[in-house]
């Protein structure tokens, strides 16, 4: 017998109405909780997706047992988002959110990327219901979420008004008040994705204690089926997966492949920096831009790659593509920035680099030594199974939730879980 908990997860973006990895991470957590017998309600901001997406909405997702999706939308559209952004609290949807929380009989509220679904004002909703904040990004200490100053460099000190204008966004003046700190006291536990991210929050003035729970992926029994599939590319290749933005550092990899000719580079993803990167690589036929690749098709690219290259120059909070490679027994070559070396070195699942020449040397080592590649890949897979699979991480979330419920003196109903 175990408690069947009722969760409400707030997030600005949620698949299929999402961009990047944070929405996917929320979806995986929601499904992981449902698989453990919990009931999950997702509240997301549909107008935020529409404001950033050109074209019609994607098809509505099929209903999933145990999971309810609540889409917030308003006839005010972008004005509704601007009010939340500038006021730091739900404005247009405040009444609906209060009613949803009041009527939902939730055991735990979880806040993910809440920048446009409610801002810090959302953190006080729900009264005495235990609350968990998941720091998928650095939004608690950075308006742009990324600590990527002026959209061109790592942030080493606050220049927030100028930085916001570089991103063509109005400054959030509530950040110069005590508002966020006061709202943070309504949250029982803040969770960072890595030790690096926890330290970076502290360095930039967020003094609340943070637990560490990493991102995760669904476990797989084995990857032998992928070995039997034909490689998706005719030549040996290294792989990059991610949004095409300056802070992802792909331009340095393109330079490295001007010096390294023994294999190709496949680039899976797209983004606002994509045209500039394609122009930079225009003279190199060994660099292939695949565009966006469906998640279900990526595993084959991962498994047959010599290695995944993760060259981010900005501060990630984690590095989900690293786990995707680990799960496919593929080693990783990551830049020594942010949490990337923390993950790769702890797993003994790849190599790290600091300069373009070091990257070229790492490419050469893994290209010419398949035995070493296999050892690193197997170690990466073991680290995934031991530390980053849903079988390991989701129970830790549930243990955390139950401990908070116990502290609040609540007693959720006891039901059997198959």
From the structure above, extract its key features:
418 residues, alpha/beta, Rossmann fold, 39% helix
The CATH architecture category of the largest domain equals 3-Layer(aba) Sandwich
CATH homologous superfamily grouping of the largest domain: Glycogen Phosphorylase B
Tell me, briefly, the overall form. globular
Unreliable sequence segments = 412-418
Q: How large, in whole angstroms, is the Cα Rg?
A: 22 Å
- Spatial gap, N to C terminus: 9 Å
CATH class of the largest domain: Alpha Beta
Structural class: alpha/beta
Biggest sheet features: 7 strands, parallel
Which strand order spans the largest sheet, edge to edge or round the barrel? Answer: 4-3-2-5-6-9-10
Model description:
The protein is 39% helix and 17% strand. The protein has 418 residues and is of the alpha/beta class.
